[in-house]
Every structure is written in structure tokens, then in C-alpha cells.
Amino acid sequence: MGAAGIPLDDWYRLFLIPGMQNCQGTAFGAPYYIVSAPQPFELGQDVWSGSGFSDPKHGALLALLGWRENGTAPESIIGTKFINETVTAGVRRQRSISMYPMQAKCRGKEDPDLAENWHCQLLY
User: Fold this and answer.
1) Which end of the chain has fewer beta carbons closer than 10 Å to its terminal beta carbon, N or C?
2) Residue 124: Cβ within 10 Å count
């Protein structure tokens, strides 16, 4: 429960990005772009969304706006990794990033580079 007895999920969501080390270096093919302060700058002037996509499934800021303006709370966000960190070079991989306490799991022997092959499930 959050403030005034309101369930926490009604007003707060936490998305942990696997492999993301915010201060230096990354592991596991991160970063996955979902919109953060430096990402649009790094990807070029023609990108207004850090993910390179213009929908709330791929952009954290657009997901937040959809939640605030339409009441549609995000359960997951699709993170995108570009070839050579260049939007015009194409998508290298995508994956679902789940709302905590859920965790993204790849579906069996499916291609882990495709977002649709990931699903959210409880950590424990």
C-alpha cells in the first residue's frame, strides 16, 4: 500500500533494465533504449523518442503520458538495441522489460532478439 491506503501499483511503477549500468559500461548487449535524458542525443537529431519509436509500448515517456492522460498503466515496455547504436542501421534486438516484481522470461527456444518472444512472470 502506498500513501493514504492507495495500492502502490495505482500510482508507481518500477522497470529494472537488465544489464544496464548507469554510470559506466554495460553488460548483456545493453543499453536498451526506452527514453532517457541522453538517449535521443546519442541516437541523432532526427530521433525524438529515445527508443526510435513513437508509441507507448516502446517509449517510457509516452507510456507515462498514456497513464496520466488516459489511465492506461504500463505493464511492460519494449527496450530496443540498435545496430552500432544507430537508428538508421536498424534494430539489433528487442525485449520486453517488465514492471517489478515481474521479470521478463524468454519463451523456450524462441528467438530471444524478438520482443514478442518474451513474457512477464513473477520473480518468485
Assistant:
1) C
2) 5
The tens digit of pLDDT for each residue in 49-71 reads 545 577 888 888 888 889 999 99
Say which DSSP state 85 is in.
G
Tell me the Cα Rg of the chain: 15
Q: Where are the domains of the chain?
A: 30-122
pTM: 0.75
Task: Give the largest Cα separation in the chain, rounded.
Answer: 49
Nearest-angstrom CA–CA distance, 17 and 110: 21
Count other Cβ atoms within 10 Å, centred on residue 120: 14
Rounded to whole angstroms, how far apart are CA atoms 75 and 80?
17
Q: How buried is 29 (Cβ within 10 angstroms: 0-12 exposed, 13-18 middle, 19+ buried)?
A: middle
